């Protein structure tokens, strides 16, 4: 009996958007209007690439960025929740599927000593160039019309589950914990024994509710959370079942 926990990262594990948090490094902690207005819907990764060029051009170094990123707050109760999952790893496989990037997530998890809690992290690959600029690439190419160009979380989850099945691992239940609009696509992959946990008041909760009103509800159960304590209470019930 093993459960799979799938976490989004921004506004789920951490209580902010890591990509906008990095702007605290910028001169006067803000971006020029021209750069801010250059974002096109569905092309966030390219936009962040331009942000990183701007930071590099302004002499912002890797150390400055790391110091800033490790001050990002965890969501209320999340530190306890991840500690609990870490103590019960024989019951839980745990992955992150996020539109952030490998460098940010790695820094944040390592600083808080949580990297061992997660079996895999699926996010946009990032690295520092020889000139010290942070660069980021799209996670993959896909054909899903509902998702941003760089990442379809449903495809990531499906490929992970298929790979696990090949290894002989299947899950009693999948619990998907997220907040954003791009978390809806993977939630539609879940079956009736699975659970979607949208964050209260955020886009995912609203989109799931809209599907119910449109009479095409998701197949899985839905449990709303407002702090990670709610998630931990549910997981404690789950392992007692």
How would you describe what is shown here?
38% of the residues lie in helices and 16% in strands. It is an alpha/beta fold and 241 residues long. The chain has two domains: 181 residues, HAD superfamily/HAD-like (Rossmann fold); 52 residues, no CATH class. Strands 3-2-1-6-7-8 form a six-stranded parallel sheet. A two-stranded antiparallel ribbon has the order 4-5. The longest helix has 14 residues. It is globular. It starts with a strand and ends with a helix. Keywords: Hydrolase, Magnesium, Metal-binding. Belongs to the HAD-like hydrolase superfamily. PHOSPHO family. One of its GO terms (molecular function) is phosphatase activity. Its cofactor is Mg(2+). This is PHOP2 phosphatase.
Summarize the structure.
By secondary structure, the protein is α/β, with parallel strands linked by helices. The protein has helices at 18-21, 33-36, 44-57, 62-69, 78-87, 102-111, 153-166, 184-187, 203-213, 228-240, and strands spanning 3-7, 92-101, 120-124, 126-128, 134-136, 173-178, 195-198, 221-222.
